[in-house]
């Protein structure tokens, strides 16, 4: 069967690209055609309207579409969790220097220190009559939005009043920084590294500094597609599971970097991509390298859709007024992230063990059965 899948040029499209370009999909009888898009709204529209059968998509956006938030309600089905982590906070050089001054000699790599410094910087700019700091993120329903908000709120900053958060397609963020439209951004690899390479900014934090295992992207399809083409959905899921295992093997990283670097995929240097895959990012123009093995998590243990992560994302939507907390919403989230197809696909794959996810979460203890208590404690 021919399946068209949309993707955004990000390193975390790796599993989908490997499924197509390494032959995992073809081995399952799937002709997998990948279509590069610029914005998440394009991916959303083409997936929900049937132009795509599947898509690499923001995990919270898949949930939001299933809930009908700010868009027509179209139930989606998550076949595979493509990755966790992989994003960074980047500040323009001038803004970074201003934040360092406000940190007053404390280690700015500590999110508590940087958050407190940001609060002082916001107040100082307001006192001087200067405009608000502007931060770009990829979509209102995105991990990047919630990571920025989590960091700011923990420092006593109101992200809806004290700064401006704007939506920007990932490939355009470096240009927005260059033109002075934004002071910084939160986005997935490779775009923070691209900004560093051209001397436009410095990486302040990895997303994993804020949330240790942040849900990022999933491979989703319409629930109606699964109902009508169940065998194709199972075949595609098997291909993605095998691609995940291939991507997660360290010996395949160089080959994977070259697949992603192709002009029709990310169209950026393979070395830049390899650094993200290996978790060794250059964070400034001086060549300072920060290493963290879980900067981007591409592994079989994290591939199974994890309802706990979905409910954590739902809680962030409720926290920031995007959704209401009720039984109907919870049920829709659980259906969107149901591991049923994933588990059925695994049953026919000899020698492949089921992963149980690796969690997410930061702040107060998270009980997926009691979202109300979590929400009360996180804002207390």
Characterise this structure.
The protein has 380 residues and is an alpha/beta fold. Helices cover 43% and strands 17% of the residues. It is built from 17 helices and 14 strands. The strands form four sheets. It has a five-stranded mixed β-sheet with strand order 2-1-3-11-4, with helices on both faces. The longest helix has 19 residues. The N and C termini lie far apart (52 Å).
Short description:
The protein is α/β, with parallel strands linked by helices and about 375 residues long. About 45% of the residues lie in helices and about 15% in strands.
Average pLDDT, all residues: 95
Task: Sum up the overall morphology in one term.
Answer: globular
Q: Treating each run of at least 4 consecutive H or I residues as one helix, how many helices?
A: 17
Q: Structural class, judged by helices and strands?
A: alpha/beta
> What separation lies between the terminal Cα atoms?
52 Å
Helix content: 40-55%
Cα gyration radius (Å): 20 Å
- Taken as a percent bin, the fraction of beta residues is 15-25%
- Strands side by side in the biggest sheet: 2-1-3-11-4
Query: What ranges have pLDDT less than 50 throughout 5 or more consecutive residues?
Result: 354-361
